[in-house]
Every structure is written in structure tokens, then in C-alpha cells.
Amino acid sequence: MYYNDSNRYVKAIAFAPGHITGFVEFPTLMLDDPLLKGSRGAGVCISKGVTTEVHLYKYPYPYNTRRINISINGKPCSDADVSLYVVKEYLRLVDGCRFRLDIMHRADIPIGYGLGSSGAAALSLSYALNRALGLNLSNEEAARIAHKADLACRCGAGTVIAEYHGGLEMRLKAGAPGIGMVESIMDDVDDYKVLMLCISPYPTKEFLTNRIGMINGLGGKMLNILKESRSVETFLDLSFRFARSINFITDRAGRVIDALHGIGCKASVALFGETVFTIVSNDNAGKVEKVLAYYRDLYSNSNYNSCYSSAECHLLSCSIDKRGATIIEDTREPS
Question: pTM of the prediction?
Fold first, then answer.
């Protein structure tokens, strides 16, 4: 495919929501085709996520000259594996192009805490690159590139298809967008808040390496239960049971969950990070947030943290994102 856009400068901006996985199984990870690989399970997309700007400058340098700069939250990043994978996939689709690409990721979710930041970065970048390069891929095709990137870099297995769809969702069939199957648990989500206490990061690669054998089968059984109930309460109950069954609730997260249970609030941990999350009605969000704020301040205290990692503790309040990934802006200056 030839890049023949006559515009000398293009800016494209896209957004992809963050995502929390409540429970999961990986029935197809041993397959060769990455588009068939993925996960089944359930989770929720949140209104905070990753916004990616792509600035493309055409310049009259020697044939096939390309320069690519990537930054995350304003800091240059040379080891953004997922982003580099997406860029390389797009460079295979264009020939004879001389340009500079400035890629700027802005994450308003903490990275490494189980909120789907890698998938959101890959998906928003894929959408923005597709527009900037004028390739006219469908959103589904662009999302498939992001899905392959997330898998190849072992940062996720079903995050991208969830962030592509949005909402409080069940992934009923594993695979990339257009192959996997996603259904909403419920459509009326405007009256709910997602509250999260992000305690410490946890590498998804480590989880995917060490715990797959423990969870396959369990997630599928829980998915069948949720398909019948389709309620927030059941989703939270199953998520907690799942995390407890695979021994993924740390002491710190367990204390927070116990405190929330004490005020009648169901909660669990995000897979895969030391992050406590709950979904509550807007009316109850205030009292739940007070409990989470108490533990945020406690865990951020240097005396308390002396026995733990020094990672920053974050308290987030979000609505449920219903639209999934989207293009925000597409600006072109003619030659």
C-alpha cells in the first residue's frame, strides 16, 4: 500500500478507555494465529484512559527517511514496546514515505496497576496512526493491530477488544475485534461510579507467565453465572471469589476490601495489579471514597511504607465508559 497523502502536516488524536478485568480465562493462547488468541471473562471500561496524539511531518529528505519520537506523559520513551510494535505494523503498510512521526501518549490512569494502560496506548495509537497516514483502515482493522501488539508484548490478552467496545462487558469468545465476541452485562450504567485505590504496580507479563494454569476453567464457570445474572453485584462477587481463589489479594488490598465489606460495599482487585476496585451507585460514592482515601493516606505514609515498595498510591473516581475507543481530532495542512 502506498502512502500518497499530499498533506505536509497531519495531526490525529485518539482516545481509548482504561479497563479493569474482574475474572478471566485464556482458552486460545496456544494457537498460532494472534487474531484467534485472547481471553474470555468480564470487566469494565472506565472514563479515564490514554489519549494519543500523532503529529506527522512530511519532509523532502532522501527516499524512505523516517524519524519516530515517542513520549509518555511528556517524557521521551525509547522502550515503549507496545507502541513500537504498532508503529512497525503500520510502516509495513506504507512505502515511499518520508516523514517524522511525533507520538505523544497522555495517560490519566497510572501505568502498571491493572488498568489496561498498555492496551489503551496501543489502541489509541493505532486509531491515530491510521488517520494520520491516511490508510482508511476500518476501526476494527486498526483495533486488530493493537490486539496483536498487546499479545506480542505480553501486556494483555483481551484488553484491546474490551476497550474497543467499552462498557461493563463480558468477553464470551476469545479473539481480536471482529473475531472475539463481547456483550454488555447491562446497558444502563450512567448511575454508577467506578472507584479504585491503586496501591502498587504489578507486571502483567509475570502474571501471564506464572498463573495461567491456575485460572483456566474457573473463569469460564463464572462467566456462565454472570450471563444469567447480568448484574453489577454478581460481577463484583465473582471477581472477588476469582481473585481469592488464585491467591491474588495482597495483605494491603485485603484490608481495604474488608473495610469496604464492612460498610456493605462489594469489591475486588483488578487483574493484574495491586488495585482495589468497586462499582457503586452515584449516591453511595461519597462514603466509599472516604474509606479509600483513608487507606490511600495510610499507605502513602513513609513510616507505613517502609516495609513495602515506594510506589505512589492513587485514588481514582471514574464513570463507566460506554463508547470505547474513538478519534478525537483529525487536522491536515495541505502542501
Answer: 0.92
